[in-house]
Amino acid sequence: MQANLYLAYTKCEDFIQHLKIDTCSILGVDQDFLDQCLQNMLPTLDLGKNFIVVPRKILFVDSNSVENCINSSKRLAVGCIPLDIASARRLAKVRRVLSVVMTPKSIRYVDEQQINFMVQSPSRKYVEIHLHPFIAEVVEEVLSVDIEKEFYFLGEIIDRALKKDVGVVISSASPSLRETLLITHIDLILFAIGFSKRERRLMLELYPREFVYNWLKQ
Amino acid sequence: MDLYNVLIWIALTMSILSIAIIILTVSRVYRNIELLVSELGISILTHKRYRRVKRYILVKFLCFDNNDYKTLSNYVKNSIYSLLGPVLRHRCSIEVISYRPNTGRAIIRVRGEAICVTYTLLALSIQHLKHTLGSCIAVPIRTSGLISRLRNRYLKTSR
């Protein structure tokens, strides 16, 4: 049961098409997006397979807005993108099940120290990697960014989190179907970074499932 | 009794000496053999610069426009080579050897160094993110060294 816990789609057609072509069974989309269109479309949809749609909310947080993100975790499976060290540390210490999202913008704040804080957290914490922004930098050939350094750092952080048994969840975070990353693509990218089959299974199956289970239990 | 003790000591000293000589000889012989093998290895390797492999990748294409074999072949080559870059292009050869437009399945042949296969798979996975290239999402299904192993999945009628 593979999972892609965040798709940043804005069109219903894209999401329906994604359900048809992808093999994963657990998918996460933005809560507002789910309210707007999927409640009307999902009952009429017959794909011949079962799947779980998780309502998500991804928020950028700094030291002023961190409480919003924490409060939202009661109703939704929240992912918080820290924009400073203070908010990242606060997210690690809070007694809620949530994910700390790693994107090129937050990569500086989700470091080894952050993983150590997350290990000591009173409730289970997850590092969520949004892969699309990283791959977009590679494809668009952004020269101002040291992509090799970013991917090295990404690999190191995932490695450290797996060693310390902090949950790592990989999401595509694709904004549209034309830029989507299916579960096969994510698996191949992780393979190219250098993760073993066992590690990839942990990140694509076990930890996402555990995240959803812990969030529902909360 | 004294003579007996002396004999024991002589025997003990000689056995220790013989062990030391054996250890020294073995290590020297081992070092020489190692040098010989490495010399021989280098001379063998100079004839072949790298090991060339051939792999077949079964890929499912989800295209937003209708494509025939020639269009898709050009599209695949163009997208992969543009992502790999000119440096890797002279090391990796990519060819679409078969395509079924009704199911969207194709078999791609990759020839070159072993790393070419990984790079091609990676390029196939991310090529649709580059807007200038086109509009096909490629989903790699299976990689094999023998084309016959891919036949059943390739001939599958359902999309």
CATH superfamily of the largest domain in chain B: Ribonuclease P, Pop5 subunit
Strand order in the sheet with the most strands of chain A: 1-2-3-4-5-6-7
- Poorly predicted regions of chain B: none
| Radius of gyration from the alpha-carbon trace of chain B, in angstroms | 30 Å
| Percent in helix of chain A | 40-55%
**Domains of chain B (count):** 2
pLDDT averaged residue by residue of chain A: 87
Averaged pLDDT of chain B, please? 83
Q: Biggest interface and its residues per chain?
A: A-B, 19 and 18 residues
- Structural class from helices and strands of chain A? alpha/beta
Strands in their spatial order, largest beta sheet of chain B:
2-3-1-4
CATH third-tier fold name of the largest domain in chain B? Alpha-Beta Plaits
Describe the structure.
The complex is a heterodimer of chains A (218) and B (159). Chain A has one domain: TIM Barrel. Chain A is 47% helix and 19% strand. Chain A has helices at residues 12-21, 31-41, 66-72, 85-93, 112-119, 131-139, 147-163, 183-193, 197-217, and strands at residues 3-7, 26-30, 52-61, 77-82, 98-102, 125-130, 167-171. Chain A has a 7-stranded parallel sheet. Chain A starts with a strand and ends with a helix. Chain B is α+β, with helices and mostly antiparallel strands and 159 residues long. Chain B folds into 2 domains: 1-49; 53-154, Alpha-Beta Plaits, CATH 3.30.70.3250. Chain B has 5 helices and 4 strands; from the N terminus they run αβααββαβα. In chain B, helix 2 (69-84) crosses helix 4. Chain B starts with a helix and ends in a 5-residue tail after the last helix. The mean pLDDT of chain B is 83. The chains are: A alpha/beta (218), B alpha+beta (159). At the A-B interface, helix 6 and helix 8 of A face helix 4 and strand 4 of B.
In short:
The complex is a heterodimer of chains A (218) and B (159). With 218 residues, chain A is α/β, with parallel strands linked by helices.
